[in-house]
Amino acid sequence: MDLSQYMDIFLIESKEHLLNLNQSLLELESNPHNKLILDEIFRAAHTLKGMASTMGFENVADLTHVMENVLTGLRNQEVTISNQLIDLLFQCLDSLQNMIESIEAGKSDNLPINQLIQLLQDAANGLNINEQPEIESSPIKLAAHELELNDYDVNMIVKAYQQGFKAYHIGIEVAPDSLMKSVRAFMVFKNLEEVGEIIKCNPPAQVLEEGNFENGFDLILITKEEAASITERVHTISEIKLAKCTLLELPPEEQGQENDDVKSDQARQTKDLTEDQPNSLRQPTKVRQTVRVDIERLDKLMNLVGELVINKPRLQQIGQANNLIELNETVEQFDRISTDLQNLVMKVRMVPVEQVFNRFPRMVRDLAKDLGKEIRFVIEGKETELDRTVIDEIGDPLVHLLRNSIDHGIESSEARRAAGKSSEGFVRLVARHEGNNVIIEVEDDGRGIDPERVRARAVALGLLNKDSDLADDNSILNFIFQPGFSTAEQITELSGRGVGLDVVRSKIEALSGTVTVESKLGAGTKFKVRLPLTLAIIQALLINVAQETYAIPLSAVDETVAITPENIKQVQNQEVVVLRGKVLPVIRLHNLLNIADRINGERVLYVVIVRKGDKQAGLIVDSLIGQQEIVIKSLGKLLTGIPGLAGATILGNGEVSLILDVGTLF
Questions:
Q1: Parallel, antiparallel, or unpaired for β 148-149 and 140-141?
Q2: Other Cβ atoms closer than 10 A to 601
Q3: Of 352, 427, 631, 657, which sits with the fewest C-beta atoms within 10 Å of its C-beta?
Q4: Which segments within 556-614 are labelled E, that is strand?
Q5: Where are the alpha helices (DSSP H) in 5-57?
Q6: Which tens digit of pLDDT belongs to each residue from 615-631?
Q7: Strands 615-621 and 605-612
Q8: C-alpha 623: how far from chain center
Q9: Which residues share a beta bridge with 140?
């Protein structure tokens, strides 16, 4: 059997299982007597072993098999959990991660694991663990039908029966003259997923989606519904010729395993689970119903929606210019539909930040251990959603901020006790929505940042005049984002080399976001990252300079003001304007863009106040056109990287407008 077609699924699911193993092992470390966590670790390791064995990756299968033996000893209380054993299991997960990455790179899983296996076996033998025979993971056939199911599928069905569900094999036949077979298949899936979970289909979902199948397909449904109800539900869909629903019966050996597992699990849980355990540890996790979609397809869909957004104002202009009442009414309807479609596509692109956040507990645990610090790490708002494009880019900046908090922020246990604090440091990672932005905060209760040391370092680096009257602590603290800036007295392998925070700011600003810092000496530090929900379709302020239209992202605009030429002053060869007592630098866009000045002699000047982080500046423009929703288009290879330009957009009249990159203007 050709397994190459399943490689992508194997890689995706392997990473998910490894992430689950890391999270569960962290929970087990802090709650070593919880059997439910241990059972979850065992199931994930067992499933990973079965997948790897089926795909022919024997090293992955061998290592997870020996891990299973140790986990079995833990489940049977023949092995005592220790810090050394937890560390060894984490090393195994790291090795598995390396092997999966090697497979993804087109190489084999043939990495050195003999030492780890020997350590696991030594631990097992030393604790008198009775090794279990390796479980066969080759595909088996359930008695009720001819679909081949692997270990993972069978495990899902066994768990379903244990929890009071039923498993059905459903054979579907679409009418031969149906012109949209893929739509019928989609409607079948949609109807059935309202009452259960589809765990298997043949042909695969991608083939059904493309319509590249004969008239029939098979699937397996986990549900509590009866067969007659399921058949009736399917027959409500037009052009479905046949729907046959058969209850699955497990082979005798699986039934025995199911009964044994139920009895032993119930016995262990009755004995070990106490009433004061959190509900989240007693209830099975509800699996979210999802379909994996190639990100390129979502990008293409977003581009098509972008074309609708572009053409919407063009239709509006045609209707208004020609006073076409019927067209205007149609455009209003088109406007509502396209807006709903745009919002829906934007939501489809949204993914929870937990995809990034779930990587951090293990990292924090390892860093704290390396540094000999006690740290309590709390994550809040993991369900907060961001555009997939933004999600893919924020991991590294957050790693820098967390490392900075753990290495520089949190003191040693001795220093904390001497300062009257708890010996355990506290680090908090929070995400939340705020308008059309997402706020991510990294906060610690460590030593804080000394503004006087930052000021002295800034003077030493020539970033600040010694006699400067810059007194605002927040303004002083922002010097830590300058390249090469560090106040660390000691360089470690983790930080203190003057790299990191400048990279964080550059990365965040490249995402049209901002990062700021607040700190109180002796009490702690908070980094606040503000990011836009999406980078594809944004609100912008349209301006006119020398009869050319430009767009400024509205997220960077604070306000617009009208001034007279007399309001502009010269301070140290820099034009400035005083706005409500605050001195702001002024930038004439025609000079910056190297185009002719057409506002000489004008009595009223329009100024757009823009912000970059904690800095503000005023952009002098010829006129203000108004706010509009725009679609960001790439400038292409030849124009990419030009300072001051972030992209281009097409306006309602067909004119191409350049989008200004505020972050590089001052």
A1: antiparallel
A2: 6
A3: 352
A4: 557-563, 568-571, 574-579, 582-588, 605-612
A5: 7-30, 35-55
A6: 889 999 988 998 888 87
A7: antiparallel
A8: 40
A9: 149
Between CA 486 and CA 480 the distance in angstroms is 7
C-alpha span between 516 and 528 (Å, rounded) = 5
Residue whose C-alpha is closest to residue 54's, from 46, 35, 623, 167: 46
Buried/exposed code over 405-421 (b: 16+ C-beta within 10 A; e: otherwise): bbbbbbbebeebeeeeb
User: What value does the mean pLDDT take over residues 188-212?
Assistant: 79
Upstream peptide bond of 203 is cis (omega within 30 degrees of 0): yes
Report cis status (omega within 30 of 0) of the bond before 532: no
CB 222 within 8 A of CB 160: yes
> Which helix or strand (DSSP H or E) is residue 321 part of?
helix 295-321
Amino acid (one-letter) located at 233: R
Which amino acid, one-letter code, is at 663? G
pLDDT at 339 over 60: yes
pLDDT of residue 146 exceeding 70, the answer is: no
Task: Please report the pLDDT score of residue 25 as a whole number.
Answer: 87
Q: What H or E segment, with its residue span, contains residue 438?
A: strand 437-444
First to last CA, the chain: 61
Instruction: Find out whether 34 and 277 touch, Cβ atoms under 8 Å.
Output: yes
Side-chain half-sphere exposure of 496, counting CA atoms within 13 A = 11
Comparing 132-136, 435-439, 472-476, the range with the smallest average pLDDT is 132-136
Residues with Cβ within 8 Å of 464's Cβ and at least 6 positions away in sequence, in order, are 455, 458, 470, 479
Identity at 61, one-letter amino acid code: A
Residues annotated as catalytic are 46, 68, 404
DSSP at 406: I
The DSSP bridge pattern shows strands 582-588 and 615-621 to be: parallel
Residue with tokens 């098509």: 304
Nearest partner of 103 among 45, 41, 59, judged by Cα: 59
Q: In what order do the strands lie in the sheet with 656-660?
A: 623-631, 537-545, 548-553, 656-660, 645-650
Q: What is the identity of the amino acid at 162? A: Q
Give the whole-angstrom CA distance, residue 61 versus residue 46.
9
pLDDT at residue 490 tops 70: no
Can you tell me the distance from the alpha carbon of 90 to that of 362, in angstroms, rounded to the nearest whole number? 9
Average pLDDT of the residues of the chain? 77
DSSP letter for each residue of 287-311: PP------HHHHHHHHHHHHHHHHH
Residue 464 and residue 456: Cα distance in Å, rounded? 9
Q: Which residues contact 270 (CB under 8 A, 6 or more apart)?
A: none
Flag whether the pTM goes above 0.85. Answer: no
**Nearest residue to 305 (alpha-carbon basis) of 4, 636, 534:** 534
Residues in contact with 592: Cβ distance below 8 Å, sequence separation at least 6, in sequence order: 644, 665
**What's the CA gap between 286 and 277, in Å, rounded?**
18
